[in-house]
Amino acid sequence: MRLIDEDGSQLGIKATEEAREYAYGKNLDLVLVAAQADPPVARVMDYGKYKYEQEQKAKQARKHQSQVQIKEIKLRPKIGVHDYETKKGHVVRFLNQRAKVKVTIMFRGREQQHPDRGRDLLLRLAEDVKELGLIESPPLQDGRNMVMLLGPTKNAGVTTDAEGEEIERSEEAVPADRQREAVATARDAEPQPREEVREAEAPARG
């Protein structure tokens, strides 16, 4: 077999037993790295350390590989204002969850003769959510449907926490304001000390 030392240097062609003794003499392992080669190639290494390093590399690769979710929203070309706002709210929520959004326009009957309406609607939606989503795949006709893919921007999911904190602060402030108003109202309802004195000192008319 062709033997490679731990530092990568070539040690030439060695008998299997000779290569094994060489590796064991360095308190290392003899690992066959290319069994199909002619002659086969073996390397001298610390196999336990090598295996550990490979596992760590694989672990890091999995850690940095984010699992992308794709949500889908379906629209009609003649969608009403209220329905559009509702659908847009779903898109905003999905983007803030760092998910990609597949937006599909569904054409029926004669609607297929006016694909420009669907394209305009998709581009309008993209413009409305441009702070949170970017067009990763422009509107494309797919049979009776037209599809556009939006991906989250770096701003997506950032503002939701701050808004939640502001809402929580405002909710905490409301009871305090109401309490102050109640105290002020009760104070106004009480008779003032000077008025009581004037009533007591008023002479009795006979």
Detailed description of the structure:
This protein is α/β, with parallel strands linked by helices and 206 residues long. Among the domains are: 2-49, Translation initiation factor 3 (IF-3), N-terminal domain (Ubiquitin-like (UB roll), Roll), CATH 3.10.20.80; 70-152, Translation initiation factor 3 (IF-3), C-terminal domain (Translation Initiation Factor IF3). Helix content is 48%, strand content 24%. It has helices at residues 16-25, 47-64, 81-96, 115-128, 159-189, 193-201, and strands spanning 2-4, 10-13, 29-34, 41-45, 70-75, 100-106, 133-142, 145-152. The strands form two sheets. The chain has a four-stranded mixed beta sheet with strand order 2-1-4-3. A four-stranded mixed beta sheet has the order 5-6-8-7, covered by helices on one side. Strand 1 and strand 2 form a beta hairpin. The longest helix is centred in the last third of the chain and has 31 residues, at 159-189.
Question: What's the CATH H-level homologous superfamily of the domain at 70-152?
Answer: Translation initiation factor 3 (IF-3), C-terminal domain
Which H/E pattern describes the elements? EEHEEHEHEHEEHH
Rounded to an integer in angstroms, the radius of gyration calculated over CA atoms is 38 Å
Helix-residue proportion: 40-55%
Number of strands: 8
Helix run count: 6
What is the topology, as strand order, of the major beta sheet? 2-1-4-3
Name the overall outline: elongated
From the N-terminal CA to the C-terminal CA, the straight-line distance is 136 Å
Overall CATH class of the domain at 70-152 = Alpha Beta
Can you summarize the main beta sheet? 4 strands, mixed
- What proportion strand? 15-25%
Uncertain ranges: 161-176, 193-206
Oligomer: single chain
Average pLDDT, all residues: 80
Kindly name the structural category.
alpha/beta
Q: Specify the CATH architecture of the domain at 70-152.
A: 2-Layer Sandwich
CATH topology of the domain at 70-152: Translation Initiation Factor IF3
